[in-house]
Input
Amino acid sequence: MPPMRTVRATCPFDCPDACGLLVDVEGDRVEKVRGDPDHPYSQGTLCPKVNGYERSVHAAGRLTTPLLRDGPKGEGKFRPVSWDEAIAHVASRLREIAAAHGPESILPYSYAGTMGLVQRNAGHAFFHALGGSRLDRTICSPAKGAGWKAVMGETVAPHPDEVLRSDLAIVWGLNAVATSIHFAQRVKEARRRGAEVWVVETYRTPTADLADRVFLVRPGSDGALSLGMAHVLFRDGLADLPFLRERVQGWERFRDEVLPECTPAWAAGKTGLDASTVEEMARRYATARAPFIRLGSGLSRYGNGAMNVRCITCLPAITGAWTKEGGGLLTSTSGSQAFDATVVTREDLQPRPTRLVNMNRLGHALTVLDSPRVMAMVVYAANPAAVTPDQEAVLRGLSRDDLFTVVHERYLTDTARYADVLLPATTALEHDDLYCSYGQYVIQRVAPAVAPVGQSWSNWDLFRRLAVEMGLPQPFFRQTARDLVDALLTRPAALRTGIDEGALAEGRGVELALPPGAKSTFRTPSGKVEIENPRQRHPLPRWMPSHEEDGELPFRLMTGASVWGLNSSFRERPELREREGEPALMVNPADAAAHGLNGPRVVAWNALGEASFVLDVTDRAPPGVVIAEGVPWLSHVQGGRTVNALTSQRLTDEGAGSTFYDNRVALRSG
Ligand SMILES: Nc1nc2c(c(=O)[nH]1)N[C@H]1C(S)=C(S)[C@@H](COP(=O)(O)OP(=O)(O)OC[C@H]3O[C@@H](n4cnc5c(=O)[nH]c(N)nc54)[C@H](O)[C@@H]3O)O[C@H]1N2
Ligand SMILES: Nc1nc2c(c(=O)[nH]1)N[C@H]1C(S)=C(S)[C@@H](COP(=O)(O)OP(=O)(O)OC[C@H]3O[C@@H](n4cnc5c(=O)[nH]c(N)nc54)[C@H](O)[C@@H]3O)O[C@H]1N2
Ligand code: SF4
Ligand SMILES: [Mo]
Output
């Protein structure tokens, strides 16, 4: 028997925690994945999904050979072929399609199946060199980034550990118990040390159970809540005037031109909170020693998402929370710019600038977009049939007989079922990569723990070999993934100066060097917090309605995260599916009674489509709001359609982002 080894890795999933893993290996088998106690942020604990990740690596359904379609699209019937045959076939079809329709008829579709800087971005250079359409990768939360940036520019976000020194921790639109468990742990610890904890939400999530106070607002109304709070802060003399005078741009115009109308009664009308609650929240926020806001992504996925985030981001500037130890606001740490991803993405390889196709509008891109029509799509590290809005349009597109679809995957996902060519992909325990997180400040270099399972290839190996097969001359494509990791590490970056290089080379998780006072060193053009930003379409933050503020159907639909999956990932694991149960729709008891819903099932529908759920009547759902947690595989649910049959292709106000939470539905017993 080969000896047991233990190697370090990073959890590659699209999760802000980016936990450190210890991988116990025997020969080419991963025996056990567990938490790395030496990881500076995750400190040895993992979520229930990855604790047991060896079952995903060696899942019964793991794809192990290249496959060619052998039945109608969507059915999922394939026959095995060699890699040589598969690569030759893909290269010749892409060449033909480029010649007949122009290279822009080729569309890459990828997102964050893996967060590693090399593998996540592995196809970019190839499609740039080919002159294919570019994908605008905005499915997650660009509006959150845009809202933050409008006020704070390139300011380095505070460390999540700041919350431990806060006396008022506000978890705002973040379901931390599901989506960032190590932040949830820190919130619990802060509470143990005496902090008051608030959750601002649209329904009673599991995270709400951690809080002293839970404030449920109407979907898409957080901007109004923060404007109402700001009104009270100025009206009652609770603003930090010395800080505002010295460090903030445009606060007087904001106070004088925007806030007068934003009374607590007005904010109450928009949010559904009582006016007295808005007053109380403002007063408590202002009198806390060091209030810390952790802002999630959900509230940014609205037609007014960026503006709402911008309004919230004004609050710590009005109270001067930025100068207090433990105070401030954290949306994401990905602005740290620890690495220059252009080393891998190489947009400069484009022969000319090509069109940008928004990934949220894939349904439109495949069924309507013209000049040229999309004739080939290469999908990797993503499952668009399940995760992309307007599922009916996406499925119509994927079903097109004249669309050549290549899917690089580990499992027979919903998207894989529509592939003409289905290629087996490695997991992160089988390839080289470099990781940095968007929720904390640890980076880690990771080497393969085991050889690729079956005949699987990493993303980078797929694209570099395709590049060679297609005769792309650039020496860039002759490099290995490890070369690219080295190249990323060679480019200097301020936050990497002075870090423990030895530990990094050994494969340990290493903290970046956050300079003291970084969070209050405002990296904006004016050097101040820009409440007024003249470069914005609306120079002052203000109220803006969401797409569905006045929509006609009776219910707002929340499409939250599940504890047992990560978007559509982990659905290869029967034991996790069992824990999760069949997809359910949470409905308030009064709504269920008024609409004659008595289960066991309910159908939610709107103009885009319908989906069937188990009916879950619960007072965790406030009146008028229904909630579907999780993004299951279509092949696992009754009726073959999931919550994304109900979400639209409309975009956010800034950042061209998804609006997964800005939808309405009607219900009927089903
Ligand atoms: N277990 C698990 N972990 C995950 C994921 C997963 O699917 N499962 N997904 C991963 C990914 S890709 C991401 S981007 C992150 C996302 O993680 P989060 O930042 O937590 O984002 P969401 O879960 O989309 O939304 C957070 C909360 O916002 C609430 N919300 C929605 N609209 C509003 C609103 O208008 N106002 C307020 N105040 N709240 C609102 C939702 O009810 C939800 O509970 O999590 C990552 N981690
Ligand atoms: N209703 C609803 N829909 C949502 C959301 C929501 O909250 N509600 N959240 C949205 C958000 S925030 C996001 S970020 C998107 C995420 O959407 P996606 O990025 O598509 O995420 P996953 O569903 O996790 O699918 C990733 C797929 O990539 C594969 N994969 C993983 N690693 C690799 C690799 O190294 N190589 C290759 N070739 N494949 C790999 C996995 O097996 C998996 O099938 O979903 C969005 N969709
Ligand atoms: S999914 Fe998130 S919480 Fe779970 S192990 Fe990975 S990084 Fe950690
Ligand atoms: Mo995301």
Notes: The longest strand covers residues 609-617. Residues 11, 13, 15, 17-19, 42, 46-47, 49-50, 181, 566 surround iron/sulfur cluster (ligand 3) (CB under 6 Å). DSSP finds 23 helices and 27 strands in the chain.
